[in-house]
Amino acid sequence: xxxxxxxxxxxxxxxxxxxxxxxxxxxxxxxxxxxxxxxxxxxxxxxxxxxxxxxxxxxxxxxxxxxxxxxxxxxxxxxxxxxxxxxxxxxxxxxxxxxxxxxxxxxxxxxxxxxxxxxxxxxxxxxxxxxxxxxxxxxxxxxxxxxxxxxxxxxxxxxxxxxxxxxxxxxxxxxxxxxxxxxxxxxxxxxxxxxxxxxxxxxxxxxxxxxxxxxxxxxxxxxxxxxxxxxxxxxxxxxxxxxxxxxxxxxxxxxxxxxxxxxxxxxxxxxxxxxxxxxxxxxxxxxxxxxxxxxxxxxxxxxxxxxxxxxxxxxxxxxxxxxxxxxxxxxxxxxxxxxxxxxxxxxxxxxxxxxxxxxxxxxxxxxxxxxxxxxxxxxxxxxxxxxxxxxxxxxxxxxxxxxxxxxxxxxxxxxxxxxxxxxxxxxxxxxxxxxxxxxxxxxxxxxxxxxxxxxxxxxxxxxxxxxxxxxxxxxxxxxxxxxxxxxxxxxxxxxxxxxxxxxxxxxxxxxxxxxxxxxxxxxxxxxxxxxxxxxxxxxxxxxxxxxxxxxxxxxxxxxxxxxxxxxxxxxxxxxxxxxxxxxxxx
Length: 586
What we know:
This is Poly A polymerase head domain-containing protein. There is one protein chain. By secondary structure, the chain is α+β, with helices and mostly antiparallel strands. The chain is 51% helix and 9% strand. It folds into 3 domains: 3-85 and 348-527, no CATH class; 101-257, Beta Polymerase, domain 2 (2-Layer Sandwich), CATH 3.30.460.10; 530-585. The protein has helices spanning 38-48, 63-74, 101-116, 128-134, 151-164, 179-182, 221-226, 251-257, 266-272, 275-287, 293-299, 302-311, 314-325, 330-339, 343-346, 363-380, 391-399, 406-432, 436-443, 450-466, 470-478, 490-499, 501-520, 535-542, 548-563, 569-585; strands at 3-5, 56-58, 123-126, 142-146, 173-176, 186-192, 195-201, 203-207, 214-218, 236-238, 243-245, 259-260, 290-291. A hairpin with a 6-residue loop joins strand 8 and strand 9. Helix 1 (38-48) packs across helix 18, helix 16 crosses helix 22 and helix 18 runs antiparallel to helix 20. The two termini are 56 Å apart.
């Protein structure tokens, strides 16, 4: 059986909500996409830690839970569940591109450059920006295609124009293409009014039999549109005329119909560049578009599967998988992969590994069903303060941003989830107790009652360690029981979780109950609460020197404070002296 090992990299501080990436570094030539991500590695290690030693996991046996938790890290805590499989339907597509004020100003500068230097160049925004604008979505990914000059040359004209107005000029970055493959074509980049813009040439391309890297040359708008991966990505916005151009004649039609198709015949498109199969799946899931029947037939063919195995690096496949899992419908992307018989190709193991008889033939379907089960739990749980923030952002921004802290953060997060599961079960048990007095005692703020003290201390300590991540670990703990594919219980458990609302409701009930308990016990932001007696106060009260003993007393003060939410500083000092006397007598 092939195994994966997990490797860590320093996390990078993020300034906005970023999606999680399922990136795993392989120990051998095995072939889960070899990318790295703290989030997915974290969850992967947790779900597999009890099955095999150290940080190694069974590739296929635990893949369902890897995917399920990747979904957990992707979704928001406030969402509504929609059926996984999309329905073909008409989509609202605008007749014209509506520019923002900034886009209008940028395009006016570009057309002014044409006028000043009497250029006949046609400026066209290409690809995803046009698609998104027609769908009414904002986009900052502006790629401008030029029909008669290099991007660098046009950028120099832009700077010359700005200088003539006494405006600030900007540096131009140039990415040179491989001259053996692209005949000296290049991409130039510069910032205009603060926005980064790429300038490229209209291109035509041909492919060698054994490579997905095309030979590039100057092309016409039609050739450039036809070389695109999908019809919905082949549209242009002509800045000169301010009109949308659809040289394939199918881009707008497919956008309105909600269909994913290719400009050229899909089989030849995929054989030229097999990675486009993954891109078709990703965009289909992202926009909830239906895959074209001819496209599905080509994608599921043995020839395309072999090409995806042999012509595309695992890193590139991994990049597409991470984008799928970072999208709004990762479970749909995985379902497309399974439906197209590509699961064992995308998530393949070392060809030299012996088949594991414990892995069922339909493991791909079981993986998808497990992911759907986790999705249902996640999307039906709503936090009390109506958060709408990706859980992955909490993890990356709030916990794992410190340099060289990844390993410790991973270990701590997994332990949190285990602890949360135990605490959640205790709270659920107390709630189900028939005694009204027992239930009431859990929430009554009487410091002398053992029930409230025990619950508040245990839950408070856990929240202080989790901080803003506590909802993430709560959700994580709710799907911990999903077994491995190799487990005999897997099929029954997945069937229960996917098709039986009772399983879902039980998990949602547990999450809601824990959150209610947190609120009732006044623990909502307990990690921000300062100790009633800090280290200096403890040293002064007990006449201690700095050292380990002070920290031990601080830990005890924290326990007292959690058990006595209304306790004063004077009361804590009295307790401190009493405890110290007891300790000295011993």
